[in-house]
C-alpha cells in the first residue's frame, strides 16, 4: 500500500475566454492505508484534483508523489470511481464486475436500480485491487438506506484490504462515519483549509457526542467557504 503526496497543485481552465483558477497551490498527504475524506463547496475543484492524481489531466504546476517517487500520468496504481458510475452499458453485470451479483449477472446496467448500479461500479473499482482508491461521491445519488448499506460494504472491504482511500463527499456525516481524517477544502480556487482527524473506532454512530462535536466544527468551516461562493455569485 502507498503513501500519496500532492504538492503545490495549481490548475486554471479557460472558460468563455476567461481564466478560471480551480486549484491554487494545493498540498496534502495521505498515509499508507489511510481513509481520507475530502469535503469542499460545490465546484471548488475536487473532481479536477482526482483527474490530476489519476493521471487523466496534467496540472499547470505541482507534483504527485507515490512512496516518495514523483509520478506522471496514469501509473496504474489508482482505481478511480468517477461521479457518474461509468459502467459500460453494453456489458452485462457479469462482465462489468467479473463476478456475479446473484440473480443479476445477466442484466445490463440499464436494467438495474440506481443503488444496484452504484454497487456494481463500487465492486468493480474495488476488484481492481489497486493501491489507492479515488472515490468521487460514490453514493451521492442514493437513498439513505442504500447509502448506509454501501458505506458498510466499503468499510468491510477497506478493513480487509487496507487500501489507501480518498473519498470525495458532500455529506459531513458520511465523512465522519468512514474516514480516519477529513480534509476541508476552500471555495474555488481550492486550497487546504483544515485537517480534521477522526480518531474513533468503527463502526461509528453519528449520535456519539464526539462525532456531534466534530460535525459542528466541520459545518462551521464549510459554511464560511460556502458563503464565499454565494457572495461571489
Ligand atoms: N475541462 C474543463 N474545462 C473548463 N472548465 C472546467 C473543466 N473541468 C472542470 N472545469 C470547471 O472547474 C470548476 C471545478 O470543477 P470540479 O468538477 O473539479 O469541481 P467539484 O468540486 O468536483 O464540483 P462538484 O462538487 O460540484 O462535483 C468548475 O467550475 C468546472 O466548471
TrEMBL record:
Q: Where are the transmembrane segments?
A: none
Q: Which PROSITE patterns match?
A: ABC_TRANSPORTER_1, ABC_TRANSPORTER_2
Residue limits of the ABC transporter domain? Answer: 4-212
State if ATP-binding is listed as a keyword: yes
Q: Name one GO molecular function term.
A: ATP hydrolysis activity
Sorted keywords for this record are: ATP-binding, Nucleotide-binding, Transport
Superkingdom: Eukaryota
Protein name (record): Uncharacterized ABC transporter ATP-binding protein MJ0412
Amino acid at each position: 500500500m502507498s503513501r500519496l503526496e500532492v504538492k503545490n497543485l495549481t490548475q486554471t481552465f479557460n472558460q468563455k475566454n476567461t481564466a478560471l483558477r480551480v486549484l491554487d497551490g494545493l498540498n496534502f498527504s495521505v498515509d499508507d492505508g489511510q481513509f481520507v475524506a475530502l469535503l469542499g463547496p460545490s465546484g471548488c475543484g475536487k473532481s479536477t484534483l482526482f483527474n490530476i492524481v489519476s493521471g487523466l489531466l496534467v496540472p499547470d504546476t505541482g507534483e504527485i508523489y507515490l512512496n516518495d517517487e514523483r509520478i506522471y500520468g496514469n501509473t496504474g496504481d489508482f482505481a478511480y470511481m468517477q461521479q457518474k458510475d461509468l459502467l459500460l452499458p453494453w456489458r452485462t453485470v457479469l462482465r462489468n464486475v467479473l463476478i456475479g451479483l446473484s440473480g443479476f449477472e445477466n442484466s445490463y446496467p440499464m436494467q438495474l436500480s440506481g443503488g444496484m448500479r452504484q454497487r456494481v461500479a463500487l465492486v468493480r473499482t474495488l476488484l481492481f485491487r489497486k493501491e489507492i482508491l479515488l472515490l468521487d461521491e460514490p453514493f451521492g445519488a442514493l437513498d439513505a438506506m442504500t447509502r448506509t448499506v454501501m458505506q458498510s460494504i466499503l468499510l468491510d472491504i477497506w478493513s480487509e484490504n487496507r487500501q489507501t482511500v480518498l473519498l470525495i463527499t458532500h455529506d459531513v456525516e458520511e465523512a465522519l462515519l468512514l474516514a480516519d481524517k477529513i480534509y476541508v477544502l476552500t471555495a474555488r480556487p481550492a486550497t487546504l483549509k483544515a485537517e480534521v482527524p477522526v480518531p474513533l473506532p468503527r463502526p461509528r454512530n453519528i449520535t456519539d457526542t464526539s462525532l456531534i462535536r466534530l460535525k459542528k466544527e466541520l459545518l462551521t468551516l464549510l459554511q464560511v467557504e460556502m458563503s464565499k461562493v454565494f457572495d461571489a455569485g
